[in-house]
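Hi P.,

Sorry for the delay on this. The queue was packed all week, but I finally got your sequence through. Input first:
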Amino acid sequence: MYIPTLADVVAAHTRIRPHIHRTPVLTSSFINSLVGAELFFKCENFQKAGAFKARGASNAVFGLSDEQAARGVATHSSGNHGTCLSYAAGRRGIPCTVVMPRTAPQAKKDAVRGYGGRVVQCEPSTSSREAVFAEVVAESGAEFVHPYNDPRVIAGQATCSMELIEQVDGLDAVVAPIGGGGMVSGTCLTLSNLAPNVRIYAAEPEQADDACRSFRAGYIIADDAPNTVADGLKVPLKELTWHFVRNHVTDILTASEEDIVDAMKLIWKRMKIVMEPSSAVPLATIIKNREVFAGQRIGIIITGGNVDLDTLPWQ
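Then the structure:
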């Protein structure tokens, strides 16, 4: 198992710079007063293709040799990674196939197709997703770009927190959502090398808390088909992301479905930015655990904005 290094992150940032946005950091005095801390929101909902995963996908696609790229790329994804891989593949002019749960938001399926990707549907479980994907790869010979258990992807995601610590001085902690752990692993990779005093917290839905239970138990616990409004956080940890989580994460905090929807609505109302339920989980956990963060400077990664406007969770 190859574990990416800081050198990989630096190389990734140079490689992907023409294909991504350096996203802004926004603040809200109202939310700061509510939680009793200074919060700095790194807005990856404004990223290319609407999510942080454009970073990892672009690093993987543009790091391929011409021979590898000619066969195209493929992945399985609940939405954002598939969308971002289609975006990156389109920029390079190569084919992309994405295996997606039939229950994935229509907006995310449409986005994959909009960037030129091909969608193959599966049942909403990890086992079905991986079985259907194996058939796709056997048929096409495409290069597999895993949504998170891939050193190229993690190195790309790590560029987000590299930018964050350049944009905001003196952070005490960074909080990011966790599903499979790609963003959290990238955050661990960057901060452990460049800002080792900054604590790293992962935020997870109570109804999809396998990473939290894994963290407590000391080994990977994988749920096959959890049910949560935070559709981007339903996948389990894998060996590479588990390496970063168990070695560098301070704690994994959870929030209820009601907490997540309330936090999402709060950000929409007060900050006037569109973001998806998965992105609201960090704020939901901070509100629930104010005493952990009181009086501190906290970075929050808003991971994506690809929400289906026809099925908002408070409708």
